[in-house]
Design goal:
Length: 112
């Protein structure tokens, strides 16, 4: 049986590896996946509540005719125990992800 410290270490390592997928800071480019983070001790830490709220807000967005103005395919997806917002049609705009993450209490948005 694994100790609780070992399990916590494994989960933390999994989170760090998964977050590394989202290393670039959000930019104005279009993305297929996004999540929200806070910064603790210089490290990006996943913010679940902000991520869920950001994805919900983006899915309801309808602000114009540009690709990033709506997200008809925004869904929550979980991989490796980490839930993020997915848009297979690349409707996630970097600036908008940053805005919705910030409005929902996160320090920043990350996208790929």
């Amino acid at each position: 049986m694994r100790s609780s410290n070992s399990i916590i270490h494994t989960l933390a390592l999994t989170l760090v590896i998964t977050l590394s997928i989202f290393l670039p800071l959000v930019s104005a480019d279009l993305h297929t996946a996004a999540l929200c983070v806070d910064f603790e001790g210089g490290q990006a830490v996943y913010n679940s509540a902000a991520t869920l709220a950001m994805c919900s807000a983006y899915a309801a967005r309808n602000t114009g005719g540009e690709q990033w103005d709506t997200c008809p395919d925004c869904v929550l997806e979980t991989k490796g125990g980490l839930t993020f917002c997915r848009s297979t049609g690349q409707h996630l705009g970097g600036d908008e992800v940053e805005f919705y993450c910030g409005n929902n209490g996160a320090g920043a948005g990350r996208a790929s």
